[in-house]
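Format notes (please read before filing issues)

Several people have asked whether sequences and structure tokens are stored in separate files. They are not. Every record keeps both together, in the order shown below: the sequence lines, then the token lines. Line labels are part of the format and must not be stripped during preprocessing.
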Amino acid sequence: MDESPRHQISANLAFTLIKSASVLVSIRLADAVLTAQVMGLILLLRRQGALWSNLVQLGLSQSLQKFYVADERQAERLELWGVMVRWVAVASTVFVTLCLLIDDSLANLLFGRPEKSLAWGFGIYVAGIALGFMATSSWQAEFRFVRANLIDWMNGSLLFIVCLIWAGHLPGTSIVFILSGLTLAASLLAIWSFASMTNGRNALFANRWRLERSITRYGYTRALTAFADLATMVLGPWLLRGQSEQAGYLIVALIVVRVAQSLVLPVARVLALRANSYRYNQHREEQLILKFAGIVFVVSWLFVALYFGAGDIALAWWLPNSSAHILSIVDKLVLFLPAIGVFYALRNHIEIRYTFPFNLVFLVCAIATLLISSRLLGPVTLTSITNAMSHMFFAYYFYSAAVVVVLARRKPG
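Then the structure lines:
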């Protein structure tokens, strides 16, 4: 394993390009083979799955990155890993059971469609994503970023593309079941692969269940942070769940605006893990994080300028059936791209470095801003939700700027 930051970041950036291109292909393919209603349903389900799986995984994928990475003892690290995986497996089983018990009510609440089979498929999908988070974090904690990215790529868009090619002609619920089954199988296989390659099979099936209170406290707050983070992406489309086409347009527009997140996070994760690891110099790594945040801010403005220069042409080529609807949304939100980029450049470091959940507090305030704004702006329409999200993104500017100032004034030691 090459431990240089250049090698680790290069591996993540290479996969970022692959995953970003894969997302574009998946949305383009969905636009071509699915009706607007089915595309809206599937995209909403994928967003809801990512949202609720962050609660189901109990924040233990984040705890793994903090406590596993910081421990020099291999046996203790693997034992901790085994306990965490077992807890996520139990939580996933409980969630699937819950979906079976309140199926039609849950489907109506989340998707505006009281279909039992939709809730069952959703439960399996959430379990697969939650276990996938654990598999990805496991390899990241070992600084094996190629394997981690492969898992993230499969669950993020590759399996979705496979489903669209293989089963795009089927009803929406059938696509949901196929996607859910493939996701769960891929995640279980990835966890077993990690156990095999790290001699962790015994740890995976050990009888220990107890976790230190510091780990559980950290995990719960980070689970809520991840949930709140994704809620800023899901809440707007969820408010439009009775209008599947409009919800789908908003989701695609947010994918465009959140391009900074997908490009920045792979590098930010590497830098945050290095700054927390016993293997590296903490102060030097923190300085790299600040420099990276500055680069992200400048490059994000270049993306904004590029969008206003050629964004309409690019969107028309990418999504010929939906570009007119999506363009009007992106026009209002793209100016917030630099703030979003800086937030994600710093988020992982803040999560791992500090015990107090600073990001959670901010994200709760951002969600409150979105909800209050949507209420004040009248009936729930695509226009009102887009304007409300503009208010929420404005908060990113203030938080990102404040965090940069605080970190810049920190002294070494």
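For reference, the curators noted about this record: The CA atoms of residues 173 and 400 lie 40 Å apart. The chain has a mean pLDDT of 82.
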